[in-house]
Amino acid sequence: MPQFLDFDYFFAVDVLKVSPATVSLQPLYIGWLVILIPFIYQGFFMHRNYVLMFALSQLVCVAAESLNLLLATRYN
């Protein structure tokens, strides 16, 4: 039975025409971010208002997902 990750891969490769190498490198990018984000937080955002940071991060997530929506609906 196919899983959702299989659908995601084939949708990106077949429909969006993203190269398989780019799709395969996504876990590598995520791995680097998992290592890098705590250092950035401790260096720059330790004494900032958490509520403001959370709101800004949610806005960034909405903007990033809206770009994915544009790609999926082919309005790019």
Question: Could you write a compact summary of the structure shown?
Answer:
The protein is an all-alpha fold and 76 residues long. Helix content is 80%, strand content 0%. The model has no long low-confidence stretch (mean pLDDT 85).
Describe it.
The model has no long low-confidence stretch (mean pLDDT 85). This protein is extended. It starts with a helix and ends with a helix. The chain is built from four helices and no strands. With 76 residues, the protein is mostly helical. The protein has two domains: 1-45, no CATH class; 46-76. The chain is 80% helix and 0% strand. The protein has helices at 4-15, 20-24, 26-45, 50-73.
Report the radius of gyration as a whole number of Å: 16 Å
Q: Strand-residue fraction?
A: under 5%
SS element count, helices: 4
Separation of the first and last Cα atoms? 32 Å
Give the helix/strand class.
mainly alpha
Give the overall pLDDT as a whole number.
Answer: 85
The portion of residues assigned to helices is over 70%
Low-pLDDT runs:
none
Shape: extended
Number of strands: 0
* Main pleated sheet: none
The number of domains is 2
